[in-house]
Specification:
Blueprint lengths: L3 H4 L45 E7 L7 E9 L4 E4 L12 E4 L12 E10 L12 E5 L18 H4 L7 E6 L15 E8 L1 H9 L11 E4 L14 E6 L4 E10 L12 E5 L4 H7 L2
Antiparallel strand pairs: 1-2, 1-4, 2-3, 3-6, 4-5, 5-6, 7-8, 7-10, 8-9, 9-12, 10-11, 11-12
Amino acid sequence: MKGLVILAAVVTVTSAQGNAGSRNPIFHIECGDSFGDRVTIGTEVPVGRYPWLAVIGRIDPFEEGFFNAECGGTLITNRHVLSAAHCFAKTFKPNLVRLGEHNVTSNDDGAQDFTISRIILDEYSFTTKQNDVALITLDRDVTFNPRIQPICLPFRSDLRHNKFVGNLMTVAGWGRTEDPDSRGSDVPLEAQVQVVTLDRCQEAYGSITLPSPIVESQLCAGTGGADTCGGDSGGPLHYLDLQEERYYLAGITSFGKTGKCGSAEFPGVYSRVGSYLEWLEFNIL
């Protein structure tokens, strides 16, 4: 979604983002194309299926060259990644974004590392968990290739305010595969989750006395079995437009019930990206 150098060459191309009259490069980009086979539930993500997947973390200062993956993210321009604000609400913040990654234990899979030069949060509240969105600016432009591509943002009028209730979405990331003490996966895994109503979500989390209700800027998904888990924070909730055959970023993985990944009782909670488009336009120049 970003990057004047690369995007200047595609300004005249009809974009899936819409609003071609805007000068903001967020609108002038080819996006959401998958270079892998379509989703199969609960399995390893084939190389190239989700080329916008980012791993966010730090190089371990005590183990030379070891990359400590902490959160997920989604490439939206050739200079910007979206993730969750809570990933940066700690003393030792992630400082590196890895794109084109597959196996985090391998050093020869063509992944590229980018230093984080700026992080913008949108009034995130650690207490209420609302506005759990982080816009990351990379230290340099990304050169797109089949394994590194941006996802589309839901600027289309039928997507911008859509709550997606009943839709099957896809989640993907390097998070834990079991609960609660397992380690993260070496390779990205994917699963399908169904979006549920906010009332259903509020009913579930009201039982554990969240300090604030589930709000319109959030989505809830998951009816048991498949879910995001620890280490998936900040990663994408995908919506696949079957007519366009393009992926759109519907949500950002925010939180779930501690120790209850995949529970039918507690859906996963996501920041609804459509609620933050104006904020993104303002902050991506």
